[in-house]
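Workshop exercise sheet. Pairs work together: one partner reads the sequence aloud, the other fills in the structure field after running the prediction. Swap roles for the next sheet.
Pair: D.N. / O.F.
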Amino acid sequence: MTALNRVPSLMARAGTASAFAIAAVGGSIVIPGVAADAAAATPAAKALQVAASKKGAPYKYGAAGPRRFDCSGLTMYSFKKAGKTLPRTAAQQYNKTRHISASSRKAGDLVFFHSGSNVYHVGIYAGHGKIWHSPKTGSWVKLEKIWTKSVWYGRVR
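Structure field:
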């Protein structure tokens, strides 16, 4: 039986969070406690799952979880749960990552929005041109299409 054939029964056992995990990685099968391949066990994949599990959590400036987040608070919290330490702000996080090209980006990499040399927002790349992020006051953690070309990518070491 292949992993794809087991998806319905695995999802039934894994619960609602698995739907978030599947959406988070752009359709790949990543169910908590069930690793389909070695990539599912990486800190980046784990951080992506954590961010997806926070869907709907309200934005709050300066918040770093577990119930409210600003953009860099969500990425810091998600990677901390995955065993990696990130600094507090989007700009500091950019400076801490290994910078990569758009063609090299993978699910779990960080996406940094910038104006000139100023980094002002960060999210976690979910694949298919989408990110998990906590965008602004009055909003919440959500999966959203990247809306600009003014982004840089970074891989957490």
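Discussion prompt: The radius of gyration is 15 Å. What would you look at next?
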